[in-house]
Amino acid sequence: MALRTGWRLRYARAARAGATLVLFGLSLPVPARADVYNVIFENDLFYRRDRDYTNGIEFNWSPSSDRDTAHPAWLTRSLPALFARDDLRASYSLGQMMFTPEDTKASDPPSDMRPYAGYLYGAIALTGRAQGREDQLRIQLGMIGPASLAADSQDLVHRIRGFDLPQGWHTQLRDEPGLVISYRRMNALASLDSHGEHIFDLAANYGGALGNVFDYVDAGLTARLGFGLPDDSGPPQIDPSRPGSRIYQPQTEFGAYLFAGIQARAVARNLFLDGNSFQSSRSVPKEILVGDVSAGAALAFKRFRLSFMHVFRSREYRTQNGFDEFGTLTLSLNL
């Protein structure tokens, strides 16, 4: 009886918190043009794992298109004519990713496990929108290795949460500058309206990346179903992944929707598996074809969007112990 009462109290508190969130979101005015801020958090601890791609976090700012410095002129001038220019928005990002082997208790992890690696990066991107189309060009610069501070970040989080500390970060990939230039295009394939409200859409995407960190081409599909769907391609993730919109533009006072996506990549290089480019390091034989399946839900308010998705990722290297899975929690703010 005590357990049942405790469960009911927790459920009531969660329901009250959810109702408060909805009322708060509905009470805010709709911005015509605003700066957009995104916080993207990806972690496998949502599913009680701590291996392979174990954590990613990215902070993103997209200034309002009203600003004179909304997008850098040098980048706009360098774009090919095929890039959509009807609605250009720039975005600036700072992020960190970390990768660990399956056995984090070993001081010298087995050679068939993914090596420890971290990546600290900054990025500038330009998004061009036209009717039923969105183009994204992104330039990312960063550091792999101890300079990424991934070991320090993971140790800090494990100490705070009372977890055992990983013992093998001294074997991580060496310091190396990272460069990734990526391009993605998204095209609407189908949509459905009901009583003047957008309730369903299906979009295709394709593109790829070049650099010393990632070289790949990819393609995929994303479907959304709900009400009050924002005019975008869904919540963003950390690359490489299903592309989403870092520009959040709500169309109604409140919306809620489910979404699902599939993504396939043909990978020529993944530094976190292939090892350092110019010096010896640990490595594992990568899989050339990698697939993601994701599903989630989003609440879209006037001033913010909150979403969560579950991502299943196929094996990225031949000796990997099954598929990978992680959760992506995203908060987008219009301020």
Short description:
The chain is mainly β and 335 residues long. It is built from 4 helices and 12 strands. The chain has 2 domains: 1-30; 31-334, Lipocalin.
Sequence-ordered SSE layout with sheet pairings:
Elements: H1 2-27, E1 36-43, E2 52-62, H2 73-77, E3 87-100, E4 117-130, E5 133-144, H3 150-161, E6 176-194, E7 197-211, E8 214-227, E9 254-270, H4 271-274, E10 289-301, E11 304-313, E12 324-334
Antiparallel strand pairs: 1-2, 1-12, 2-3, 3-4, 4-5, 5-6, 6-7, 7-8, 8-9, 9-10, 10-11, 11-12
What does this structure look like?
By secondary structure, the chain is mostly beta strands. The chain folds into 2 domains: 1-30; 31-334, Lipocalin. Helix content is 14%, strand content 47%. The protein contains 4 helices and 12 strands; from the N terminus they run H-E-E-H-E-E-E-H-E-E-E-E-H-E-E-E. The chain has a 12-stranded antiparallel barrel. A hairpin with a 2-residue loop joins strand 7 and strand 8 (214-227). The longest helix is centred in the N-terminal third of the chain and has 26 residues, at 2-27. Residues 21-26 have low confidence and may be disordered.
